[in-house]
Structure to design on (252 residues):
């Protein structure tokens, strides 16, 4: 019975999604909507199948930037969050600077980065890192500040080193909050990278969107959106799996 419930939990959203696509297909045919306005699912899914090799290549290029951008944003965010949570001076000096940087419209920095760093992957990675940085920082600060003071008393009474205190008490306590921020940024990063690829790219899903727009190929644009959504779903699922494996005590 439990196996059936688990299977149904995964099947139910899939069935709803298929039903929505069927309704979409029927309504497009009934009202004879032009394909350049809104393509039927059969049109863009057909493009998805027919050009899967091209889409897979450009999706891999986008995924590479996403992963580099996440690493470049998440790791410094966790380190800085620890410093802000542990040291009041760091919070007073660094946090206002971070908030100021967060308030800057990141996409408008793209032309400057192209001037500074040229037409390479580095500006795309840097912009992605800047955008995913703040959500992880905020959640990580909350996590590190939630460590019970009694844990520090216990750590000191047992003569634990800084590293032992960090790995046994601080990081496990903050980890759920870190993963919470990571789940948000994983989804955001897909959109960010595709948008950034419009500005500076010769490959990737954003580049494909521009080429499809030039030829008014609406079904191809929808096929690219499907691929981008799948990347977001897969990355989000991987984060959930990693959280369950690394933090088994958080399972309900």
């Amino acid at each position: 019975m439990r196996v059936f419930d688990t299977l149904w939990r995964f099947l139910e959203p899939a069935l709803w999604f298929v039903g929505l696509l069927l309704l979409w297909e029927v309504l497009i045919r009934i009202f004879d909507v032009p394909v350049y306005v809104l393509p039927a699912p059969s049109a863009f899914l057909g493009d998805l199948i027919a050009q899967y090799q091209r889409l897979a290549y450009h999706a891999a290029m986008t995924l590479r930037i996403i992963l580099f951008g996440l690493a470049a944003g998440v790791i410094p965010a966790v380190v800085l969050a620890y410093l802000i949570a542990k040291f009041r001076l760091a919070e007073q000096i660094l946090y206002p600077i971070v908030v100021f940087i967060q308030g800057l419209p990141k996409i408008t920095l793209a032309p400057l980065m192209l001037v500074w760093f040229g037409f390479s992957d580095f500006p795309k990675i840097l912009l992605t890192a800047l955008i995913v940085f703040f959500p992880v920082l905020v959640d990580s600060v909350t996590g590190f500040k939630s460590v019970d003071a009694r844990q520090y008393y216990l750590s000191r009474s047992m003569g634990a080193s800084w590293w032992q205190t960090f790995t046994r008490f601080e990081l496990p306590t903050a980890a759920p909050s870190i993963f919470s921020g990571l789940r948000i940024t994983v989804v955001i990063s897909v959109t960010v990278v595709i948008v950034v690829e419009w500005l500076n790219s010769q490959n990737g899903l954003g580049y494909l969107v521009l080429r499809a727009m030039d030829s008014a190929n609406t079904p191809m644009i929808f096929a690219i959106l499907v691929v981008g959504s799948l990347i977001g779903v897969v990355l989000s699922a991987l984060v959930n799996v990693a959280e369950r494996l690394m933090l088994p005590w958080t399972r309900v």
User: Anything to note?
Assistant: The mean pLDDT is 86. The first helix runs from residue 2 to 31.
